[in-house]
Write a structure and sequence with these properties.
There is one protein chain. Helices cover 40% and strands 23% of the residues. The protein has 20 helices and 25 strands. The strands form five sheets. Strands 13, 14, 15, 16, 17, 18, 19 and 20 form an eight-stranded mixed beta sheet that branches. A five-stranded antiparallel beta sheet has the order 2-3-4-10-7. Strand 11 and strand 12 form a beta hairpin. The longest helix is centred in the middle third of the chain and has 28 residues. It is globular, with a radius of gyration of 31 Å. It starts with a helix and ends with a helix. Keywords: Cytochrome c-type biogenesis, Membrane, Transmembrane, Transmembrane helix.
């Protein structure tokens, strides 16, 4: 047989997490078609994605290189599985999947074999996601009549059994606000069912789809305003699973922009790279005025006042420290988002370990500023020593610390710049983050390079010792604030554990001050190691607390969709306990009596989304509105329409005026 003579392909290509190859069902007949499968086998515990990947992921793609006159049809997708990943739901395949494509052979083809080549790309995920791909080839013998390869007949038959079939009878789909109901044909009886939409943002993937009799229920995504339902309906009963193609009108759907529910969110502002760089620089400048940077401002001022010689070198070293930290944060953020993580600006502060270590750092710096720990003790560690030391190393360490503590703050102009950055290629995104760092370091750099500005600083003297001790207390205050953030993230037990770590740090400082010799140093080292161990102890996220503001509702995409479907105005506040800008806005504007009165008079529902810990729904809403971090304030008008974005710094009058607009 011809298929015995010459079906030849490269050996299966093995990547780090998968194995891929092309397989022909049989010979190629001129004027006919031959079915070719991409066999993709994932490592145990890993999965690839369907046509619509669900909440996260990317579908597998195949780019064909074919002889002249030949053509390739679309991928024929077997029925997918619903794959829960934490609070999200993906659609895809575990283990091995065969993706079929029909290759049309030209009628005039005269060769003895058909040479096929394809570039296959897929995203494969487990706890992390890895984009992979392979260049594949296959030589298919040409014959006068179809002939199947017996080695693969069963695999092709099994795969075709998993392809969706036409519905035997039409189904009925209807919506009421965000609720979707699918009435199955009477001829289809099943004990479980799930609808997989062919397009993204149709149904809330992670929501259950209960089946009661022949009625299947699902929840529509708030942004969905279509009038047709397209996808695959998978039915399960005793001993069998079947998939059916769905393409049906939705009864009760109002076509066009007036459809009930939330309309599509505004696209991320197309500000362009030059304007994004300008916004980033201005935002970095304003960060110097934010309260989250105040604890390290004292160290900067003291270093300039006490070490005027070599000021330019200090300025450059400080700037280098800021830029290195911003580059590391940006690189980590971009890499994690590329791997499918739902994170944004300030993502490291969503880690209780980072919060605990920062609290320890501020506490240790405060002890140093009170002269409880003397400069130069080796056991205090290089990290803290950098921030205490004079000269270039001290300025570099101060720059690192300034950048780290600036991340809880979002200044005006920053939101648009960072939101734009995370939609651009990595090189442009890194450039925007670096310019943000330049803005943060610019005042210190300017003073160090302009002698006239440096001469405005007071002369060194005894006042510096008193000021240093006074400024220790803002550092202690920052440590207390971080402990409160920790309580919001993981609860009271974590605060007690962190308090034990602070006690160990204080004990280490006491031992170093009162006892000399190797024995005292070893005891202090043991205490510091114990403090570090308390910071990295695993903790569980605290249960979601009710919003602090009276009358506020906790944000959920489903609840927002219901309110929008009813035409109710909604004010959404996305915040976090570690975001100082958010907390200031709540104190000076959102929690004020005039704002509460305006919410009540206009019938506006106030929703609070807490991003202290990671929340994919909140991250998705931020991304939809062109932002990478909190705060974000949205006013959804009555009767529908796109939300209005408020500035990142609020006043009581601004919020009241915005709520009063028709």
């Amino acid at each position: 047989m011809a298929w015995q003579a010459g079906v030849a392909g490269a050996a299966p290509v093995k990547t780090e997490n998968a194995e891929a190859e092309l397989i022909a069902e049989g010979v190629a007949v001129p004027g006919g078609t031959v079915t070719v499968a991409l066999r993709l086998k994932a490592r145990p515990g890993w999965h690839t994605y369907w046509l619509n990947p669900g909440d996260t992921g990317l579908p597998t793609t195949i780019a064909w290189t074919l002889p002249a006159g030949a053509g390739a049809g679309p991928i024929q997708w077997p029925l997918p599985k619903a794959l829960p990943v934490g609070p999200l739901m993906n659609y895809g395949y575990e283990g091995e999947v065969w993706l079929l494509t029909e290759i049309a052979v030209p009628a005039a083809f005269a060769g003895e074999s058909l040479a096929l080549a394809a570039r296959a790309d897929w995203l494969i995920c487990a706890e992390i996601c890895v984009p992979e791909g392979a260049d594949l080839s296959l030589t298919v013998p040409v014959g006068p009549a179809p002939a199947a390869d017996p080695a693969h007949v069963l695999n092709f038959e099994r795969t075709r059994a998993l392809l969706p079939l036409p519905l035997p009878e039409p189904l009925v789909a209807s919506r009421a606000g965000a609720a979707l109901e699918i009435l199955l044909p009477e001829s289809l009886q099943a004990r479980a069912a799930r609808f997989f939409p062919a397009e993204e943002d149709v149904v809330v993937a992670a929501e259950p789809q209960p089946l009661e009799g022949s009625r299947l229920s699902a929840r529509l995504e708030p942004r969905f305003a279509g009038d047709r339902l397209r996808g695959v309906l998978v039915l399960e009963s005793a001993g069998w699973t079947r998939a059916f193609t769905v393409d049906a009108a939705i009864a009760g759907a109002a076509p066009g922009p007036a459809a009930p529910g939330r309309v599509a969110p505004p696209a991320a502002p197309a500000i362009g790279l030059p304007l994004a760089l300008l916004f980033a620089f201005v935002g970095g400048l304003i960060l110097n005025l934010m309260p989250c940077v105040l604890p390290v401002l004292s160290i900067k001022v003291l270093s300039l006042a006490g070490h005027r010689d070599g000021a330019r070198g200090q300025g450059l070293a400080y700037t280098a420290g800021v830029l290195v930290c911003f580059l590391a944060l940006a690189g980590g953020l971009i890499a994690l988002r590329a791997g499918g993580e739902a994170i944004g600006w300030g993502f490291q502060l969503q880690s209780p370990v980072v919060i605990g270590l920062l609290a320890y750092l501020f506490f240790g710096l405060g002890l140093w500023m009170l002269d409880i720990v003397s400069f130069g003790n080796r056991l205090m560690g290089a990290g803290e020593g950098l921030t205490r030391r004079g000269g270039l190393a001290g300025s570099f360490g101060t720059g690192l610390l300034a950048a780290v503590v600036a991340t809880p703050c979002t200044a005006p102009f920053m939101g648009a710049a960072l939101g734009f950055a995370l939609t651009r290629p990595a090189a442009e995104a890194l450039a925007i983050f670096l310019v943000l760092g330049l803005g943060l370091s610019a005042p210190f750099l300017l003073v160090s390079f302009v002698p006239a500005l440096g001469r405005l600083l007071p002369r060194p003297g005894g006042w510096m010792v008193r000021l240093k001790k006074i400024l220790a207390f803002p550092l202690f205050g920052s440590a207390v604030w971080l402990l409160w953030v920790l309580s919001v993230q993981t609860g009271a037990v974590a605060v007690a554990t962190a308090g034990s770590g602070l006690l160990l740090i204080a004990f280490a400082a006491f031992v170093l001050r009162e006892f000399g010799g190797i024995g005292g140093r070893l005891v202090a080292l043991a205490a510091l190691l114990g403090a570090f161990a308390t910071a990295v102890l695993p903790g569980s996220p605290a249960p979601g607390a009710a919003p602090a503001a009276a009358g506020a509702e906790a944000y959920s995409a489903g609840r927002l969709a219901e309110l929008r479907a009813a035409g109710t105005p909604v004010f959404v506040n996305l915040t976090a306990a570690w975001c100082i800008t958010c907390l200031v806005n709540e104190q000076v504007a959102l929690d004020r009596p005039a704002v509460k009165k305006a919410l009540a008079e206009t019938g506006t529902v106030y929703m609070v989304g807490d991003w202290t810990n990671r929340d994919p729904d909140i991250t998705r809403l931020l991304t939809e509105n062109g932002r990478s971090g909190v705060p974000l304030y949205l006013l959804y008008p009555a009767g529908g329409g796109a939300p209005q974005l408020l500035p990142q710094l609020l006043t009581e009058g601004l919020v009241v005026e915005t709520l009063a607009q028709p």
